[in-house]
Design the sequence.
């Protein structure tokens, strides 16, 4: 697993550590930092679920929703903290579960000042390992805009054609990990919040 310490997927709010990151449960005190980072228009432009503008109220509600998803067995969402020189939240990564199909969807966002430093790849790889090796998920999928490449998270190209590509890998346990890519995406404006 990507973490240095083992964790139990069914324990109270699991945590994961990598060499540079601490993936931990979101807490209400994270709301102001999340609102600050997620308010950047580039975050909304590169995700399908974060609206722009993004407010403190949005962050507080989102943290509550993620805690409820975990409590109900519908997902794992982690704050992504840099470990050194002191803990600092730089984004979030999560797995939304589809229990009926023994699968999950991986999603993440990283604050713009922290782009290009490998934090997305590192946290996504750790979440994938957690999902397969600890939570026992058999299939993990992800969607991304074509301009975002996930190859560093451990995905490899399976096939591709035109504007769509399928990316995938198999874990040591045989679990399937796949992703869809497309250039056909829409940008949301303030009037489109939550759509």
Sequence:
């Amino acid at each position: 697993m990507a973490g240095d310490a083992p964790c139990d997927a069914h324990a109270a709010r699991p945590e994961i550590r990598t060499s540079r990151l601490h993936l931990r449960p979101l807490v209400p005190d994270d709301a102001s930092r999340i609102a600050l980072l997620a308010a950047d228009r580039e975050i909304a432009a590169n995700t399908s679920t974060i609206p722009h503008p993004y407010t403190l109220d949005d962050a507080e509600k989102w943290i509550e929703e993620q805690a409820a998803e975990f409590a109900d067995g519908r997902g794992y969402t982690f704050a992504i903290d840099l470990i050194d020189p002191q803990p600092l939240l730089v984004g979030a990564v999560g797995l939304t579960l589809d229990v009926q199909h023994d699968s999950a969807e991986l999603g993440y966002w990283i604050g713009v000042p922290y782009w290009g430093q490998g934090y997305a790849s590192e946290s996504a790889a750790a979440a994938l390992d957690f999902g397969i090796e600890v939570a026992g998920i058999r299939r993990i999928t992800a969607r991304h805009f074509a301009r975002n490449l996930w190859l560093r998270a451990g995905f490899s190209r399976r096939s591709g054609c035109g504007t769509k590509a399928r990316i995938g890998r198999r874990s040591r346990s045989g679990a399937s990990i796949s992703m869809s890519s497309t250039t056909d995406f829409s940008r949301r404006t303030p009037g489109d919040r939550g759509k």
